[in-house]
Amino acid sequence: MIGIFIRERRSWIVMFVALQLLVLFVAVLDPSVPIASLLYVILLSSLLFAGFLFARYHRETRFYKSLDAWDDTCDPGDLAEPAGPFERMTLDKLMEQSERYKRDSSMRQIEHEEEKDDLLSWIHEVKTPLTAMQLIIDRLDDEKAKSRLMYEWLRIHLLLDQQLHRERIPFMENDLFIERTELAPVVHQEIRMLKSWCMQKGIGFDVSLPAAEALTDAKWLGFILRQLLTNAVKYSKASDIIVESEREDGRVRLRVRDFGRGIDAKDMPRIFDKGFTSTSLHQDAASTGMGLYLARKAADALQIRIEAESAPGAGTTFTLTFPRQNDFARVTGM
């Protein structure tokens, strides 16, 4: 900061030095002026000027030091008190801009909340005719047509469900209920939802859950499993999908393993990125690239570590590692 202060006052310093040289020049031209006395005056004035700069440095840089260390997420009123009119003008402008940004941010937040509420309301409205369609499809006698219609119905249902949870995830902390949750009912419920799709593709499930409980929220765990199972069914041919659990080092792990086309090694670091689909089947318009991204977001809020292992042609394994009681206690005070 002292270097900046010297550069800012450079013109004044140059002016002072020029005046002293001018006095010396006059003394050289006029022999009647005593050089020794003049040098003494110049020395005293230089010391006085240096002391003046030192005092002004601490006074004039106090505000700018606080401005340099200022976190722009804080209020400008937390800055040091201005020492002069220019600093006061700077602070006033900062306060004015801050108030304007706060008003704009508040308006944008209100607009976002209204749009979110409208979208959630629309999704719930659409679910009503979807339920009616499911009842109509169930009454069909043509099994082939029934199977195809149920598949298309399921696709619409899963997309709406994904969008619904996408809007809720930023506020999911308000909706969490962490408890000892039995894994079997959650897993079997998600499998039943995909039954018609699995029957059409000849896919079965091998479920083994010796570690029967985990500390989590059942509803949001169901959403995470829905994304993993949907991906497993989507990218697998006729085979079994393995869902198993275990307890190791005091932690419960739940694995979902398929024997589908797998994931390329170059894609693995990006599979949880928002909107990422695939580099090998980039033209697949049916993939939204949101399922694993939303699963990771929900898992992070539940303190679940989600990991993936895969190889092309060898299938993919997703592992959910649930937190221990103490992990939640440190964060939530449970």
Summarize the structure.
This protein is 58% helix and 13% strand. It has helices at 2-8, 10-29, 35-68, 85-138, 143-168, 183-193, 195-201, 218-234, 291-301, 325-332, and strands spanning 179-182, 204-208, 213-216, 240-248, 251-258, 305-311, 315-321. The strands form 2 sheets. A 5-stranded mixed sheet has the order 2-4-5-7-6, with helices on one face.
List the topology elements.
Layout: H1 2-8, H2 10-29, H3 35-68, H4 85-138, H5 143-168, E1 179-182, H6 183-193, H7 195-201, E2 204-208, E3 213-216, H8 218-234, E4 240-248, E5 251-258, H9 291-301, E6 305-311, E7 315-321, H10 325-332
Parallel strand pairs: 2-4
Antiparallel strand pairs: 1-3, 4-5, 5-7, 6-7
Helix pairs in contact: 2-3, 4-5, 6-8, 8-9
Structure description:
This protein is an alpha+beta fold. It has two domains: 2-98, no CATH class; 180-332, Heat Shock Protein 90 (2-Layer Sandwich). It is 58% helix and 13% strand. Strand 4 (240-248) and strand 5 form a beta hairpin. It is elongated. Mean pLDDT is 83; it is low at 330-334.
Q: In terms of per-residue confidence, which ranges show pLDDT below 50 for 5 or more consecutive residues? A: 330-334
Secondary structure category: alpha+beta
Total number of domains:
2
Strand order of the main beta sheet, please? 2-4-5-7-6
End-to-end distance: 48 Å
Key descriptive features of the protein:
334 residues, alpha+beta, Heat Shock Protein 90, 2 domains, five-stranded mixed beta sheet, two-stranded antiparallel ribbon, 10 helices, 58% helix, elongated, disordered C terminus
